[in-house]
Amino acid sequence: MKGGDPVGDQRTETLPEYMIRVRRDIHRHPETAWTEYRTTALVARELEKWGYQVLLAEEVLDLESRSALPAPGQLELAEMRAREEGVDPELMRRMAGGKTGVVGILQRSQGPVAALRVDMDALEVTESAGPDHRPAQQGFASCHEGICHACGHDVHTAVGLGVARILAEDQSWQGTVKLIFQPGEEGMRGARAMTERGIVDDVHDFFSLHVGIRALETGEIVTGCDGFLATSKLDAVFHGATAHAGICPQEGKSALLAAAASCIGMQGIPRHGDGNSRINIGGISAGGNSRNVVPDYGIVKFETRGGSTGINRYMEAEARRTARGRR
């Protein structure tokens, strides 16, 4: 199983050296949700090397449950890039069409199943090229324009592989471990497709991780973090009627004004008394570049969060009601 192949010799490098090397390789080759072809191939190759049962594509995904899949043209461009970067053609055939993600299983005996889940996707963010930015200084900044690992998922993937190596080399434990490398964490796009496929149905103990949430100093580890919030990501689309703003403005219905009014309304949603509740407007756009045209299309990108699923559902319902202009 061939994937992106970071240079290194595992026979001589220490575990920290291995994890740093892999993390920097992944950081240099970031991939967004459902296009993590090279990253999936790299992880699969490493897991297979250490004796894990490796599951891919439909084995780990319910394809109908994937959310916000990129357009076919975007997927094809990402697949072409992955092939150019050395991903095995047969593996690419299996993953084509946004079937990324991998699960590694190592069983030593009958008994409880423990799982560790990490995420792999990057963000559509341009990485800094500044002289004080370490990846730029040391030559592992993103080589994919407009994409970078700005949320630490490259670190998470490297940690997952570090755990995989430790467990493969340690013969003292019993039971079964599942290492879950999830695609599309950003925007809540990937988890449901994996859970609907049943990959955690037999899991007794489930672990996850994130860098920089509570542990803010190098070498610091915090266990049992709380305060994570349930969330929904939504787009509100507005349709109006275009018109010339100078000649016949009375015929227009501005989608931009409707979108702007919804933003103000959503920010005014009463917060919930039973726990944390939040809403954020991440972006608003409408119309084109003409100052004299009433825009007939607008979109608001927003998210809700809650200290419980119930609180988040309240925030989402109120946001939907407000966006629809209902009192």
Using brief descriptors, characterize the structure shown:
single chain; 327 residues; alpha+beta; Alpha-Beta Plaits; 31% helix; 19% strand
Describe the structure.
This protein is of the alpha+beta class and about 325 residues long. The protein has nine helices and ten strands. The radius of gyration is 23 Å and the shape is globular. The termini are far apart.
Provide a compact summary of the structure.
This protein is an alpha+beta fold and 327 residues long. It has helices at 15-28, 37-49, 72-84, 89-95, 134-138, 153-169, 191-196, 255-267, 309-323; strands at residues 53-56, 102-107, 113-119, 176-182, 205-208, 230-239, 243-244, 277-286, 293-294, 297-306.
Total number of β-strand segments?
A: 10
Following the backbone from N to C, one meets helices and strands in this order, namely HHEHHEEHHEHEEEHEEEH
Mean pLDDT: 92
Q: What is CATH's topology name of the largest domain?
A: Aminopeptidase
Integer-rounded radius of gyration: 23 Å
Oligomer: single chain
Q: Any idea of the CATH class of the largest domain?
A: Alpha Beta
Category from helices, strands and their pairing: alpha+beta
The span between the termini is: 57 Å
What is the CATH homology-level superfamily of the largest domain?
Zn peptidases
The number of helices is 9
Total number of distinct structural domains: 2
From the 3D coordinates, which CATH architecture of the largest domain would you assign?
A: 3-Layer(aba) Sandwich
Catalogue the unreliable spans. Answer: none
Major sheet, described briefly? Answer: 5 strands, mixed
| Strand proportion | 15-25%
Outline type = globular
> Which range best describes the helical content: under 10%, 10-25%, 25-40%, 40-55%, 55-70% or over 70%?
25-40%
The largest beta-sheet arranges its strands as: 1-2-4-3-5
GO molecular function: dipeptidase activity; metal ion binding; para-aminobenzoyl-glutamate hydrolase activity
Domain Peptidase M20 dimerisation: 237-305
Keywords: Hydrolase, Manganese, Metal-binding
Binding site for Mn(2+): 151, 153, 186, 210
